[in-house]
Amino acid sequence: MREFLEDVESGDPGDPVARARAAQKAPLPKRFYKEVSVGEGEGGFTILLDGRPVRTPARGLLKAPTRALAEAMAAEWAAQQTEIDPFSMPLTRLVNVALDRVTPEAQAVADEVVNYAGTDMLFYRADGPQKLLDRQAKHWDAVLDWMGATHGARFFLAEGITHVKQPEEALAKVRALVPADPLRLAAVHSITTLTGSALLALAVAEGALSADAAWTAAHVDEDFNREQWGEDELATARRAARRTEMDAAAQVLALG
User: What CA–CA distance (Å, rounded) separates 238 from 188?
Assistant: First the structure.
């Protein structure tokens, strides 16, 4: 399940840029519609192309629970030029995932988020240098403090990569925060896999952390290394592609 969702959400579990390049080798479907609009019906808001509703890959209706989210998806369809490029429509792709894959397997997806929390990035601190340790504390401790003060979930920290088993009581608190709604669950799962942290994803979902702050926190180690050794062009492009997915998930949480 994790592998499938990462593949759909990010283009490729480890390299969305490579996946996008591969997709570009195949011909994209031509834009066949003139007008894009939003329809309202039982169960939500649909995307209409020349008056006909868009369907998901599994042939269900592509729909959103709010007009705001439907209009944001409609804007993606309207922005297509002569061809339809799914990689330029992250909101549509994520909602497709929520409807086709998360809805029938919501428990398995929720379990994945909790499993991430068991080895969350925020628990594992570097053994030096002090500048990196200070930066980790600055961006990570506030999230752990929020989990403890607001939700009563307290975790063990470790130095290095040695696994530390987290308290079952704390993980139960995490499970209680995982959204049951498939759309929000898909967004939380996406942020979890993109950042490597279920706690960051849940903090964004609960409004305790902005998407920008979560993204910065997720890349503390990477940014530190970039400062020391310089940037890698491919890594920078890959990161930009993943940020697009992150922003789409945050937008789903805000608008859905």
Answer: 20
Whole-number Å distance between alpha carbons of 36 and 28: 19
How many other CB atoms sit within 10 Å of the CB of residue 227?
11
pTM: 0.89
DSSP secondary structure, 38-71, as one string:
EEEETTEEEEEETTEE-B-TTSSB-EESSHHHHH
Residue 16: count other Cβ atoms within 10 Å of its Cβ: 24
146: β partners: none
pLDDT given for residue 167 in this prediction: 98
d(CA 241, CA 20): 9
What the block records as the tokens of 251 is 């937008």
Helix (H, G, I), strand (E, B) or coil at 250: helix
Cα 111 from Cα 83, distance rounded (Å): 38
Region for residue 196 given its phi and psi (left: phi exceeds 0; alpha: psi -120 to 50; beta: otherwise): left
The Cα-based distances of 34 to 19, 30, 75, 209 in angstroms read 29, 12, 13, 39
Residue with tokens 């759909």: 8
For 162, other C-beta atoms within 10 Å of its C-beta total: 7
* Side-chain-side CA neighbours of residue 97 (13 Å): 31
Distance from C-alpha of 70 to C-alpha of 65, rounded to nearest angstrom:
8
Cα dihedral across residues 77, 78, 80, 83: positive or negative: positive
Tens digit of each residue's pLDDT (9 = 90 or more) over 216-243: 999 999 999 998 888 888 888 999 999 9
Q: State the DSSP string of 103-117.
A: GGGHHHHHHHHHHHH
